[in-house]
Amino acid sequence: MKVAQHYLSAGQVLGGRYQIIDSLGQGGMAYVYLALDLESGQKIALKMMREELSDDPEFIKRFATEARAAASLDHPNIVRVLDYGQDHNIRYIVQEYVEGKTLKDLILDQGPLHWDLAVPLMIQIGLALEHAHKRGIIHRDMKPQNVLVSPQMVAKVTDFGIARASNANTITLTGGVAFGSVHYFSPEQARGGNVTERSDLYSLGIMLYEMLTGELPFDGDSSVAVAIKQLQEMPLRPSSLINHLPPALDDIIFKAIQKVPERRYQNAREFVDELDRFMINPRGRFGVIRAGGVTDWSSGTTAIGVGAGESHFEKVEEIEETLSRRRFSRIRDAILIFFLVIAAVAGLAYGVRYAVGKLSLPPSVKDSDTVVVSRYIGRMADEVEPELKEIYGTNYSLIPVKSETQEPGIIFDQDPAYGTKLRPGDLHIELKYSTGKEVVKIGDLKNMSESEAREWLRSHNLVALFRKETSMQVPAGKVIRSDPESGEETESGSSVIVFISRGKDQAEVPPLLGLSWTEAVQRAEDMGIRLSGRSVHREAGEIVDLAESERVLINQKTDAGKEVRNGFTLEVEYGTAEDWQRVQNGEDLSNSRMEGISGQNGIYVMNMVGPLSSALNYLDSRWPADAPRYQIVYASGSNPADPNLRVYDQSVPSGEIINPYTTSLILYVQ
To answer: Annotated catalytic, 276?
Structure first.
């Protein structure tokens, strides 16, 4: 049963909790909406899988992978995943809402970014990937479109839609289809090879090139043309396009986009440290490549004869190594002379400095009258203090500030600004550094009402997420416990799960579809509910029961979220994992008992609570033309022409088989 889900309308509620406000846009896998969390009162971003992908098991798996992967990450430069789930056939992910624009939009709006802005943004992105890589997650689709930038210039990485654990199969090309963006992916992705952390770092190098120049380093008329350039070419130096760029950035980018992964930065931390050192000393030497690496930029295509289907990479490597050997003998003497000259110049400079008595002056001091303020933003407070004492004596201040976005110890503001010239009488500097997020100790919420608990958490800058469960001791409507528990500490702005008692006589039907029989029984028992199941699996046209280890739940008679009495028996239907996949693909088990097995006139009644259009499509395809029509009862005030009408109840429970000639069916609609 397919559900038309090409858009969600304002006011529509998913999962009984998330109310759509407006559309934010769409990506390759999902539509993105601005929504309101009715429990916390906060705005969130809700991603809904595109309907054309809802029948594709691979994309369903990837959509679920994004939710699980991103939910396991907790870093200030990664968009937080707050929840994920399914409302009928609509699969969604709930993320924190980040005001701002994508890095791609920032580049399109402003053109080339000044390196003083681009490099700090890239450092934040690199720190986010370091966090993911340490947890075994490779992004595999890093591009400016997947980075959100707030008005405060805080970068947040999102869209782990094709991320996978690093110990899983990481082949990127399957059947010739490339996932991700060809303009940013690495040569090993272009060849369909194994993807590692260094593949993400290659993409960061391409992104930094675009940030600094406003141009893509590789472009072409087709994806194949771009992929071949990724394999064979090196782009123009960024500094040849933007005159003010320090040449050191050329070397950093050049190392990041080496064709051979082993010649790139080995991990995200190494890349970030290099950028940090560059910000401290933009004239330093960076991007040193291990022996055997490519040593020249080249904008021309390498002419290589390669057979059909053969990788270009090995040929490129052979030619590069041959050229390197030929050059070596010619430039060896020149290098020796060069270093002798450098040594002589360095010795002369040392003697001059010694002679004029400036050996003891710090790097910031240009002459006896002025001091040029160094750049301290991005450095650690404890690391810069010795330098501050040497230059400013006691005329400096390190001010601790709680920060929601900065890592503890990082300096994020300075006064005077970098490059300011100070005379001896004006020597003073203030640096603000982060102490991390404010920590809040959870109070004793037990036996509070839901509104009291919400207010306490709100007043302490915490987000309340409420869950209900049965309790034999705590009265209905009162708090049973919280997670984190009373007395524990958590960061300001984080979420706290509050468990509210529904009393000893009430239980809530849990969502069980897609679970194994063992998991479903355990989850139901935890809620005070028992299961009664029957098989819908068919072999050779006959219903066949299954061993418990083979059972997967594919239908439940009572909807998830409905409150029932404690001890309630929930009727469910189960099949194999393949049966469940067929249901996910919209087949509705049309070859099983759902088609009707009580004689020729039997019709299987589905759970039709949801969009009216879906229910009508299902019934019209099965209801005999000469049988009395089913009835639709509209709630007071409903407009029968409204395309958003939904079925909220049905006269015949789902799972029943009826004779349409003798049994009436009523749908209640609002």
So the answer is: no
